[in-house]
Write a structure and sequence with these properties.
alpha+beta; 2 helices
Length: 120
């Protein structure tokens, strides 16, 4: 039996932290997966792909429209562990509404949403 266990002790004011798993069908390196993340999210202003071994934390996105993402490869279980953090107020309905309005009216996608994250 192979078990994956991800404990979360999260003293936070607000936000959503996600940990998701997928089984790998072949052996893959960190660099290969990182290249896919960078290619996919490279032009996304509001998605920050973190550096190796950094985990997304809600405190670094609180009060912002940013989504921090990263992953780890677990060779023991042959799984990829994907992690993400967002502020569920700003990146949730409020920030998404502004972002969508900007796109609809031909404004820069990040207009009105460039404020830096709050840090408690």
């Amino acid at each position: 039996m192979t078990i994956s266990f991800t404990p979360h002790l999260v003293p936070m004011n607000r936000g959503i932290l996600v940990t998701a798993y997928a089984s790998l069908t072949k052996e893959i390196s960190y660099r290969e997966v990182k290249a896919v993340y960078d290619k996919y999210y490279g032009k996304e202003y509001f998605v920050r792909v973190l550096e190796k071994d950094m985990v997304p934390q809600t405190r670094f996105v609180e009060g912002s429209n940013f989504a921090d993402v990263n992953f780890k490869i677990d060779p023991r279980t042959n799984r990829i562990i994907m992690m993400g953090a967002i502020d569920n107020v700003v990146k949730g309905a409020a920030g998404q509404a502004i972002q969508n309005m900007n796109l609809m009216f031909g404004l820069p996608e990040n207009a009105g949403l460039k404020q830096i994250p709050m840090f408690p």
